[in-house]
Write a structure and sequence with these properties.
Structural class: mainly alpha
Number of helices: 44
CATH architecture of the domain at 232-412: Alpha Horseshoe
Shape: elongated
């Protein structure tokens, strides 16, 4: 035996003695033994490979058994020693691995939990990691592929998060270490790795997605079919890096998977969804990866795409400015698979899961953008799903549906999509239909859609479609009007303006309370602009008459909730100058609506709206023709019957409102001559008895309004020199009676208006033969002149000033006679002073 062999033998003997410590019952001694052996071997760096093999052969039964030690600290030290021995000391040789792997499989590769310590299990996986790293791309690792897969399959299912994360990374390393052999066992890792997809730690989800991406690259098509569904669910992950990882994996498959042409339709959604992700970084990365995929596909199919590459290089006309057109490879790839993608999208857009609907709506936008006119054949299945998704509670889904609709409108011509959506709307529309329709119209270039705007407007203007009281439906209907107005290029030369006007007025009339701010008078602005008119009033003047004819259907049957009634009242209140241009049509409807046999509430509301309109007489009658005839017919056919007394609370309320409406109608206007000379007298003779009768009405408001109406009527008659003594004698006694009315408001109204009746009286009334009337007036006024209310005293004083002009002598006589009996002596003196001034003026 030479010196070298002797030295090797001595080393082995020495190590065996140290190994005796590994058999001690004291755990500290066992742990120290591992430390001593490692220290000893580190100090003998000159040992040859053969010597190391001999040492391993003689000591492995002692050293490796420490992996089973009952003490955790000893097992930990044993793993450190084995890692040092296998990785740092021993050369690459499958001989050593054949002793280590069975122990690893035993401890962490069985279904039953053998190694209870999480930290020890993690150390063992790290040992496996170090082995795979050292033996990567060597034949010595091949025999242990099965054991490695067994260990990793259990390790990824471990409850310890760090174990899962490291195991997923180790799968990638193992696949790269044995690229030609990994496919034999790759399939066994799919289900264990998929179990990590739902882990609460996003880092584990990311690593598991990367691992599954690698596994599928080495599997047959069954592997891809198994993982594509769970991988698609990760597109709904709240963490952006997880979604980005899905896109990276999908891009790799699209570029490198050997049978990718058969699975494009399954892989494409995984990457295309990222193009519309809410995170900018995710969108940008997905766009870059997708462009690479398209360019590669374009290169691989260069012969088939040669004509398009050579000639179709310019952007299509009117291509959306804010969108970059995908390259030809990307577009072709989607077009060839769009039928398979569309059917799945149609199902998932109506999923009960919110996240699924969001991602599918994002994917829809990407598919429409790439498929362009190739989407045409799939519209029949896509549109119903879009109608439903457009009503989603999640605004992200709705926004994506709108975007997709606009893209469809650009790429697909009107005659194609109109045949699908218009019949559906006619059968019974909801606001989802309108959202999609407005998107289609908005996306269509004006040059192509302008000739069809009238057809669309005609459909939407049908009563069954536009007469809706639903808040969201109304909002979308107005949006449709705005977009159709923008696309209209024919101005007022066709019926488009009328149809859109009808829709707006109907929507305003039936407005839902939630839409008070959204739907206001400004909704007419877009239509006015589209028709190139200067003011909204021009709209009313153009189309009010036609709309009145349209709604004039059985007005006697209307109630306050009847659609046509609401539209009519809206016209009365908002038409302004157009009111005067359609007096006959308005009268015809009013005559029926305000018939005594019609709904009481409807009559009440109509009188109220009409009274409000009459407040703007200067405006509504500005362009009126035959105004006198309209007012005469209105008074004769409507006001006269409505002012006749009838029993009941409803009749009383209607009587009051009719009187209020008449009051506004009779109110003199500086700009409008309400009655001609021929008609005012007959009107006066019909109204006087009714108004005088109304002064005795149970409703104080009716009595008060009757006084105002009589005052206005007197003013109108005086203006045309038609006020006579008989009229005055009929009215003033009744007004004097109201000075004793139980309601203060009525008394004050009588006192305010009495000077009007006593002003400019007919000359004949001043004669002596009417002295009895003068005495009645003076006696009554002097009685109220003593009222405690100072305001009453002042108003009586004003009235007495008018009486002085009629018969000053009698007034002086009465004051002198009543002064001693009156408390208001100060007021009497004031009147006498004013009469004295009047006397002086008369002398002068």
């Amino acid at each position: 035996m030479d010196m070298k062999d002797q030295g090797s033998e001595d080393t082995i003997v020495g190590l065996k003695k140290m190994c005796l410590g590994l058999q001690s019952s004291d755990r500290k001694i066992r742990k120290e033994a591992y430390i001593s052996i490692e220290k000893y071997l580190r100090s003998h760096s000159e040992l040859s490979n053969q010597e190391l093999r001999n040492i391993f052969s003689e000591t492995y039964m002692y050293t490796l058994n420490g992996l089973r030690d009952k003490t955790e600290s000893v097992r930990e030290q044993a793993i450190e020693f084995v890692k040092f021995l296998i990785i740092d000391k021993l050369p690459i040789n499958d001989y050593y691995l054949s002793y280590v792997f069975p122990l690893l499989v035993e401890r962490i590769g069985s279904v039953e939990l053998i190694e209870e310590s999480e930290e020890i299990r993690l150390q063992m996986v790290k040992l496996l990691d170090a082995i795979i790293t050292k033996y990567s791309n060597t034949n010595q690792l091949k025999p242990f592929l099965n054991d490695s897969v067994i260990i990793l399959a259990e390790a990824v299912k471990d409850k310890f998060p760090l174990m899962k994360e490291l195991s997923c990374r180790l799968i990638l390393k193992l696949a790269n270490a044995l690229p030609r052999d990994f496919h034999c066992q790759a399939g066994n890792l799919i289900k264990p790795v998929l179990s990590c997809f739902g882990h609460q730690r996003y880092k584990i989800r990311v690593e598991s997605i990367k691992a599954i991406g690698e596994i599928v690259m080495h599997c047959d098509h069954n592997g891809l079919n198994e993982v594509v569904g769970p991988l698609a669910e990760r597109l709904f992950d709240q963490i952006p890096i997880v979604r980005q990882t899905v896109g990276q994996v999908a891009a790799r498959w699209l570029l490198e998977y050997r049978d990718r042409y058969s699975f494009f339709h399954k892989i494409l959604p995984l990457l295309l969804t990222g193009l519309n992700d809410e995170v900018v970084e995710t969108r940008n990365e997905a766009a870059e990866l997708w462009e690479q995929v398209g360019l590669q596909f374009q290169k691989e199919n260069e012969k088939d795409l040669k004509d398009e590459l050579d000639y179709l290089i310019d952007l299509p006309k009117y291509y959306p400015e804010n969108i970059i057109r995908p390259n030809l490879g990307c577009r072709t790839l989607v077009k060839r698979n769009v039928s398979k993608l569309a059917s799945a999208l149609s199902r998932e857009l109506m999923s009960w899961q919110e996240d699924v609907r969001v991602r599918c709506s994002q994917l829809l936008c990407a598919i429409v953008l790439h498929a362009e006119d190739g989407i045409t054949q799939n519209l029949q299945s896509l549109l119903p799903a879009m109608y439903s998704a457009a009503r989603d509670d999640d605004n992200r889904v709705v926004d994506n549906i709108i975007q997709a609709s606009q893209l469809l409108g650009y790429f697909v011509r009107y005659n194609v999509w109109s045949d699908l959506i218009i019949p559906v709307i006619e059968d019974g529309a909801h606001y989802g239909h309108l959202i999609v329709l407005s998107g289609l119209v908005k996306g269509s270039p004006k040059e192509y859609i302008a000739d069809f705007v009238e057809d669309i407007s005609r459909v939407l203007a049908e009563d069954s479609i536009c007469n809706s009281r639903k808040d969201k439906y109304q909002k979308e209907m107005i949006k449709c009007v705005e977009i159709l107005s923008e696309k209209n290029s024919h101005g007022t030369n066709n019926s488009t303006g009328y149809y859109l006007f009808k829709i707006i007025v109907t929507t305003v009339a039936l407005k839902h309370p939630n839409n008070e701010t959204e739907i206001s008078d400004s909704v007419f602005d877009s239509l006015r602009t589209g028709l190139k008119l200067e003011t909204n009033q021009e709209l009313w003047m153009l189309y009010t008459g036609r709309l009145l004819d349209r709604i004039n259907k059985n007005p006697k049957l209307w109630t306050t909730v009847t659609d046509q009634a609401c539209i009519f009242l809206t016209i009365l209140s908002q038409s302004e100058e157009a009111f005067g241009l359609n007096l006959q049509s308005i009268h015809d409807i009013l005559e029926n609506v305000l018939d005594l046999e019609c709904d009481a509430e409807m009559r009440l509301k109509t009188f109220y709206v009409l009274a409000t309109s009459f407040e703007k007489k200067d405006l509504i009658f500005k362009r009126a023709k035959d105004l006198t005839k309209f007012l005469e017919n209105l008074i004769q056919d409507i006001f006269v019957p409505s002012l006749v007394w009838r029993p009941g609370a409803s009749a009383e309320a209607i009587r009051t409102m009719a009187a209020a409406c008449l009051q506004h109608a009779l109110m003199p206007s500086p700009e409008v001559d309400l009655f001609s000379d021929d008609t005012l007298r007959p009107v006066t003779e019909k109204l006087l008895p009714l108004l005088i009768s109304l002064l005795e009405d149970a409703s104080y408001r009716s009595r008060q309004i009757a006084i105002e109406c009589l005052a206005f009527l007197k003013t109108l008659c005086c203006k045309k020199d038609m006020w006579n003594v008989d009229d005055l004698i009929k009215i003033y006694p009744e007004i004097l009676k109201r000075l004793d009315d139980p309601t203060e408001k009525v008394r004050f109204s009588a006192l305010r208006n009495l000077p009007i009746f006593l002003n400019s009286v007919p000359v004949e009334f001043k004669k002596a033969n009417y002295r009895a009337h003068h005495e009645l007036i003076i006696d009554t006024l002097l009685t109220h002149f003593d009222d405690d209310n100072e305001d009453v005293q002042n108003m009586v004083y004003d009235t007495l000033q008018e009486v002085a002009i009629i018969n000053k002598k009698e007034l002086l006589h009465k004051i002198d006679r009543h002064k001693p009996l009156l408390r208001n002596k100060k007021g009497c003196d004031k009147i006498l002073e004013s009469l004295e001034v009047l006397k002086i003026e008369e002398i002068e």
